[in-house]
C-alpha cells in the first residue's frame, strides 16, 4: 500500500475493480506497469496491482490468461488468485480438487497474507458453504473481507449481523467506495426509504466514476424492490449493452420480464442465454432442479391411460 500522505497510485485500479469497470482496471494496471516511477519499485505495490489486474481478468471470465500467466515461481498471493481462476474454469471434479487443495492451505495461514482468506472466502461462498466462508473471513480484517462477510450475512438473511459488519467497515474507512457499496447492499435488504437510498448510492457512483453493469444492476434491483419494473428494465437493457453475458443482468431481466407480463419466449430467451454463458450459476442450477422435480411429480400424478 502507498505510504500515508503519498499519492495512491492504485486508487483508479482498485476503485474501478470495486465498481465493476474491469477493462479499465486492466488498462490502468498495464499502463502503470509501463510508467517509470520510484514508488513502483515497492514490491508490495507491484503485487497488489497485479492481483487486482488478474482478478479483473477473472471477472471477465478470461481464466486462461490468469492460469497461463501465473506460474509456480510467482508470488504465493498470485498463486492464491490463480486458484480462483482454476476453480471457476473447471468442472465439478476440478472444483472439488481446488477446494481440497484450499483446505490444506488454510490450515497454516500467514497472518500477513490478506489474499488467501479472501480467495478462500470467495470459493466457499461460491460453494454455498457459508459457515466456512464466515470462519475463514474472520481471520482477516481487510475491507474486502468485511464486504464479503456482509454479502454472506445477507445471503443467510442476517441483516442485523450485516449491519454490524458494515459499522466495522465505516470505522475503518467510511468514504471508501467499497464501504459505500456495502451500505447500498444492506439498504437493498431493507424496506421503505432505504431502498431509495440504495438507488441513489448506485446512481451517485455512476455519475462520479462510470456506468457499469454492476452499478446498473444495483439500481435496477432497488427499482424492482419498489415495483418500478419498467424503469428497471431500461437500466438492465443498458447493462446488457455493456456486457451481454453478465449473469446478474440476465437473471434480473428474467424476473423483470415476468413482472411486466411479457411472453414466455422473452424470458426463455434470457434463460437460454444465461445457460449458455454461465451454466453453473446458482439461478440455473436451482431452475434445473425445479424442472427435474416438476417432471418427476408430473410422472407420478399423470393420469393412467385406459386400454
TrEMBL record:
<keyword id="KW-0333">Golgi apparatus</keyword>
<keyword id="KW-0968">Cytoplasmic vesicle</keyword>
<dbReference type="GO" id="GO:0000139">
    <property type="term" value="C:Golgi membrane"/>
</dbReference>
<comment type="subunit">
    <text>Oligomeric complex that consists of at least the alpha, beta, beta', gamma, delta, epsilon and zeta subunits.</text>
</comment>
<comment type="similarity">
    <text>Belongs to the COPE family.</text>
</comment>
<dbReference type="InterPro" id="IPR011990">
    <property type="entry name" value="TPR-like_helical_dom_sf"/>
</dbReference>
<keyword id="KW-0931">ER-Golgi transport</keyword>
<dbReference type="GO" id="GO:0015031">
    <property type="term" value="P:protein transport"/>
</dbReference>
<protein>
    <recommendedName>
        <fullName>Coatomer subunit epsilon</fullName>
    </recommendedName>
</protein>
<comment type="function">
    <text>The coatomer is a cytosolic protein complex that binds to dilysine motifs and reversibly associates with Golgi non-clathrin-coated vesicles, which further mediate biosynthetic protein transport from the ER, via the Golgi up to the trans Golgi network. The coatomer complex is required for budding from Golgi membranes, and is essential for the retrograde Golgi-to-ER transport of dilysine-tagged proteins.</text>
</comment>
<dbReference type="InterPro" id="IPR006822">
    <property type="entry name" value="Coatomer_esu"/>
</dbReference>
<dbReference type="GO" id="GO:0006890">
    <property type="term" value="P:retrograde vesicle-mediated transport, Golgi to endoplasmic reticulum"/>
</dbReference>
<keyword id="KW-0813">Transport</keyword>
<keyword id="KW-0653">Protein transport</keyword>
<dbReference type="GO" id="GO:0006888">
    <property type="term" value="P:endoplasmic reticulum to Golgi vesicle-mediated transport"/>
</dbReference>
<keyword id="KW-0472">Membrane</keyword>
<dbReference type="GO" id="GO:0030126">
    <property type="term" value="C:COPI vesicle coat"/>
</dbReference>
<keyword id="KW-0963">Cytoplasm</keyword>
<dbReference type="Pfam" id="PF04733">
    <property type="entry name" value="Coatomer_E"/>
</dbReference>
<dbReference type="GO" id="GO:0006891">
    <property type="term" value="P:intra-Golgi vesicle-mediated transport"/>
</dbReference>
<dbReference type="GO" id="GO:0005198">
    <property type="term" value="F:structural molecule activity"/>
</dbReference>
Amino acid at each position: 500500500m502507498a505510504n500515508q500522505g503519498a499519492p495512491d497510485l492504485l486508487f483508479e485500479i482498485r476503485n474501478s475493480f470495486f465498481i465493476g469497470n474491469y477493462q479499465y482496471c486492466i488498462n490502468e494496471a498495464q499502463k502503470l506497469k509501463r510508467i517509470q516511477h520510484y514508488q513502483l519499485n515497492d514490491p508490495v505495490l507491484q503485487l497488489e496491482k497485479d492481483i487486482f489486474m488478474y482478478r479483473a481478468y477473472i471477472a471477465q471470465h478470461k481464466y486462461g490468461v490468469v492460469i497461463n500467466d501465473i506460474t509456480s515461481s510467482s508470488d504465493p498471493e498470485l498463486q492464491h488468485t490463480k486458484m480462483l481462476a482454476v476453480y471457476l474454469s473447471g468442472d465439478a471434479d476440478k472444483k472439488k480438487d481446488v477446494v481440497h487443495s484450499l483446505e490444506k492451505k488454510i490450515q497454516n495461514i500467514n497472518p500477513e497474507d490478506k489474499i488467501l482468506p479472501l480467495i478462500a472466502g470467495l470459493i466457499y461462498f461460491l460453494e454455498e458453504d457459508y459457515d466456512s466462508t464466515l470462519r475463514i473471513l474472520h481471520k482477516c480484517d481487510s475491507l474486502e473481507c468485511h464486504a464479503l462477510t456482509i454479502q454472506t450475512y445477507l445471503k443467510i438473511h442476517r441483516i442485523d449481523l450485516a449491519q454490524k459488519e458494515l459499522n466495522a467497515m465505516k470505522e475503518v474507512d467510511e468514504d471508501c467506495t467499497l464501504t459505500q457499496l456495502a451500505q447500498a447492499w444492506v439498504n437493498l435488504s431493507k424496506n421503505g426509504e432505504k431502498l431509495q437510498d440504495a438507488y441513489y448510492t448506485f446512481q451517485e457512483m455512476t455519475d462520479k466514476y462510470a456506468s457499469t453493469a454492476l452499478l446498473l444492476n444495483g439500481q435496477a434491483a432497488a427499482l424492482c424492490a419498489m415495483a418500478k419494473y419498467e424503469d428497471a428494465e431500461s437500466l438492465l437493457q443498458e447493462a446488457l449493452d455493456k456486457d451481454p453475458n453478465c449473469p446478474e443482468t440476465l437473471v434480473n431481466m428474467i424476473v423483470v420480464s415476468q413482472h411486466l407480463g411479457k411472453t414466455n419466449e422473452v424470458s426463455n430467451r434470457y434463460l437460454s442465454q444465461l445457460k449458455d454463458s454461465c451454466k453453473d450459476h446458482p439461478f440455473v442450477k436451482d431452475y434445473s432442479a425445479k424442472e427435474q422435480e416438476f417432471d418427476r411429480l408430473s410422472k407420478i400424478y399423470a393420469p393412467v391411460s385406459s386400454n
